[in-house]
Amino acid sequence: EDQVTQSPEALRLQEGESSSLNCSYTVSGLRGLFWYRQDPGKGPEFLFTLYSAGEEKEKERLKATLTKKESFLHITAPKPEDSATYLCAVPSYYNTDKLIFGTGTRLQVFP
Amino acid sequence: KAGVTQTPRYLIKTRGQQVTLSCSPISGHRSVSWYQQTPGQGLQFLFEYFSETQRNKGNFPGRFSGRQFSNSRSEMNVSTLELGDSALYLCASRVGTSGKETQYFGPGTRLLVL
Asked: What is the pLDDT of residues A7-27, one digit of tens each?
């Protein structure tokens, strides 16, 4: 069964304290891995798509990497405005219209 | 280019009532997917429409239904509401070429069932 697991559930960081969020996945065949950011009461905002092991994407203080079993979202020198829930998702192998989401990592960055 | 829009943004209903939510995809795009988000279950796929046809459906009871119009706008209907239907309902527009598509989400409709 296709599955996505994210850890940790919650992460508290001091401003400037770098860290990584983990997303491990089990799918019959990977057809992309997506990272989203979600602010309270809003819809998920697309960040990155990764398609193959070894691929990396960067955007401001965020960098996403992909291996054959997991993806990491590295946050370098975070700021309070990076506080949000970060979600990762993979398309179901047999139904690529359906995204399977992890439960997210709730990140809080304190000044 | 306008993003995905959803109306209304907030709804309060009582048990047993029915509700209709609306979603307009990104202009020019014909695919709309619906998801339910709850604190306990996270984001779960409801169904997907393309060119007025439902192509896929998630594991939800028949009380959840939808349709898509010729202008690509989509509606989702939930009949005989239950307390557990309280959730954020999100729709997404798929953009890209086959095999390299991204789903962009709207702001959601927050439904509270009392």
From this structure: 999 999 999 999 999 999 998
